[in-house]
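Researcher: Here's a chain I'd like modeled. Treat it as a single chain, no partners, no ligands.
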Amino acid sequence: MAGGSLLMLLDDITTMLDDVSVMTKVAAKKTAGVLGDDLALNAQQVSGVDASRELPVVWAVAKGSFVNKLILVPSALAISYFIPWLITPLLMLGGAFLCFEGFEKIAHKFFFKEDDESHSQAIAQAVADPKIDMVALEKDKIKGAIRTDFILSAEIIVIALGTVATEVFSKQVAVVTAISLIMTVGVYGLVAGIVKLDDLGLHLMLKKGQSFYKQLLRKIGVGILAFAPKLMRFLSIAGTAAMFLVGGSIIGHGIPAIRHISEALVASVQNLPTIGGVLKVVSPMLVDAIVGLIVGAICVAGFMLVQKMMPKKQT
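Model: Modeled as a single isolated chain. Structure tokens:
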């Protein structure tokens, strides 16, 4: 009898783990939209740090990220358990914030380009100045990166929680915890690799010898050095696009009218010859992107209006 009970318990545990595994994969797909921007932002935070200090800085930010998760995960789960009706508004707020961030990047790229360039030049000059306290600069970068991580982590956790909002609390705990750990280890492992790409390329490029193997290594090194900045640009672009897609999708699912438009569009194009299958996949993404752009534009316009209305500080 005891043996049978143990087997039943093991079967229940196995079933639950399988369910958690499936739900974790779904949550990972939902939160992956934030990943590209998370990678690009954290890799950019390390720029200007001495090469020998890049990995220690990444590790310091990773530890701060774990602390952020220790605060955010229990808070999110407590909300889910005691006031579950708040999850959807939080998801909508998180989606709107993603759209805001995405549109703000576009606005700075096209309308405030000179401000961004002057800011970058000021940072470069500060780093080159021998009078600048590099320890203080490093600490400031770590603090800034941890603050950025807190916002992105909150978005990831809220999105992950939204995917399992209807599940039992134990599964919510398992999925949200798993996503938090996977994203933290994955993001900062990749960031460490990205910031060291140029060092790897330089190391390979300086290999000596005329053998085919050594020449191949040097060519690979040159390729890595050329590839690293392009990877950063790609991550930034992909991250911005993902913000609109994920944010627009979250808002669309929370507003029935938008969801019905998306479903009607899919129904109207899925039976078209040849391209119906492709349009069936693309059309909901197009709706999400349009919704994301519109919401982002409204949020940025509102933010700028509030900024103008606020009294300026006296200097």
